[in-house]
Amino acid sequence: MYLLEPREKPSQLMKWLSPILALVAMLVVGSLLFLILGVNPAKALYIFFIEPLTSLYNLSELLIKASPLILIALGLAVGFRAQLFNIGAEGQLTMGAIVGGGIAILFHNQMGWWILPLMVVMGAIGGAIWGLIPALLKTHFNAQETLTTLMMNYVAFFLLMYLVNGPWRDPDGMNFPQSVMFSESATLPLIIEGTRVNASIFITLVAVGLFWIFIRKTMSAYTLEVSGQAPQAAQYAGFSARKAIWLSLGISGMMAGIAGICEVAGPIGQLNPNISPGYGYAAIIVAYLGRLNPIGIVLSGFLMALIYLGGELAQMELQLPVAITGVFQGLLLFFLLASDALIENRYRFSKKKNKTTTVTTQAASS
């Protein structure tokens, strides 16, 4: 039997060190897993975490994978600060890609500088609307946003499947579920020749700067944080809980939508069922691993991108299954949550006391 006791003053230093502890624990358990699979742990860890940093092309791929993760995690961090748990970034990314990509398909035979900016704006709107639907359900019907955002991921994915298998399918695509390739006016320009690095990294840099200003300088960020951590105090101060919900889920959806359009207008160049390898889910880990801080999110975004890239190299060089990437992501999240739980609480083990029952009988005289 154990007792759970919240600590009066959790260590702030340990809160910032817990991601490092989680990373070390992930590496230890990952090494044991490689041993069980009959793979040299030193070689496997080198391929996973060192080899992706040894060439210009791999470094460029690291940038490509980190950019959407950082964008989505920044949006999720806004909601998490308000204790709103948006699990629907994957669907919001998909809707951003659909709405923004629809502009590219609509103006496929036209050229113009305005097409790409319009795609980004429409992608942001599409993702925001997909985030605001759960906000509506929560504020008017008290529906849990965790469940509604998660379920809407599937709706967005099947809508994408319908479009690329039906009205938006490329007639010259040999029956593959994909749209036409986007025109030059509808794709992000490359900034490093010989790689896939494109202008989306500038969008990410701007988003990081704006997020830092938002959480440090604006009253809205303070309102969101107070609403999440002390709802009664927020209500007493006159802060609107409904406004916090709309703002949080709207911003989260918008950022995921921008990430979606950056993917289809960048390295992918069209709509297809594989526009995301799970960025919307992985970004949840990125946000928490980065302590909901913009600099921390950038660092954790690169770490998660490294795991994605290392997993691809491990599949090719060690013939490991594709699930190995998800295993490392899951281990990292598990140990991060475990570290935070131990930092916030103290667990004490105690012996179970034996309970005795005394029965007293009374005799009644007639």
Topology:
Blueprint: E1 2-6, H1 12-36, H2 41-49, H3 56-81, H4 89-106, H5 115-141, H6 145-165, H7 200-217, H8 219-229, H9 231-236, H10 241-264, H11 279-289, H12 294-318, H13 323-344, E2 345-349
In short:
It contains 13 helices and two strands, in the order E-H-H-H-H-H-H-H-H-H-H-H-H-H-E.
Query: Rg, please?
Result: 24 Å
Instruction: Output the structural class.
Output: mainly alpha
Low-confidence stretches: 354-366
The count of β-strands is 2
Q: What string gives the helices and strands in order?
A: EHHHHHHHHHHHHHE
Strand order of the largest sheet: 1-2
Q: How would you describe the shape?
A: globular
Strand content: under 5%
Number of contiguous helices: 13
Roughly what is the average pLDDT, rounded to an integer?
90
Major β-sheet annotation: 2 strands, antiparallel
The N- to C-terminal Cα distance equals: 50 Å
Bin the helical content.
Answer: 55-70%
